[in-house]
Amino acid sequence: MAYPGIAQETAVLRALYYLGFAIGGVGFSVPMGLLIAGLSVPAAMMKLLPKWLVVSGFALGIIGELSALNLVIPQALFLIPLTRFPGFVWLIFAGFKLPQGE
Q1: pLDDT higher at 25 or 2
Q2: How far is CA 29 from CA 46, 66, 69, in A?
Q3: For residue 20, what pLDDT band results from cuts at 50, 70 and 90?
Q4: Fewer Cβ atoms within 10 A, N terminus or C terminus of the chain?
Q5: Is 42 helix (H, G, I), strand (E, B) or coil?
Q6: How far are the Cα atoms of 33, 41, 58, 65, 85 from residue 90, in angstroms, in the given order?
Q7: Cα(62)–Cα(95) distance, integer angstroms
Q8: Which of 85, 89, 69 is nearest to 22 (CA)?
Q9: Is 74 exposed, middle or buried (0-12, 13-18, 19+ CB in 10 A)?
Q10: Residue 60 in contact with residue 80, Cβ under 8 Å?
Q11: Alpha carbons 11 and 17: distance in angstroms, whole number
């Protein structure tokens, strides 16, 4: 957008806006949901984390995947921050609750 004439092209600006949103919004929350769900499955099978943490991990994983609906349903925008911020807290809790290796 720093080049002359780009800012006047509304179609280009809109495409760049949606590209940036897809990479930063949904492009973050969907992989974060996969990461959290991917950590919750083996933690549940091997009983490495408390049950409340595993269940909340599954819930965050599902919410993260459903945030992809925002690209077609704008009302689903609230799912992105609902994955992002609690997801970081979940990862911190999981890191402290995992047993230490020897």
Answers
A1: 25
A2: 26, 9, 11
A3: confident
A4: C
A5: helix
A6: 11, 14, 11, 16, 9
A7: 20
A8: 69
A9: exposed
A10: no
A11: 10
Residue type, 18: Y
Per-residue tokens: 23: 């990479």
- Residue 88 tokens read as 């970081």
Residues ≥6 apart with Cβ < 8 Å to 62: 33, 37
Q: Quote the pTM value.
A: 0.79
Stretch 40-63: mean pLDDT: 96
- With 90 as the cut, is the pLDDT of residue 2 above it? no
The residue with tokens 């992989």 is 31
pLDDT at 58 over 80: yes
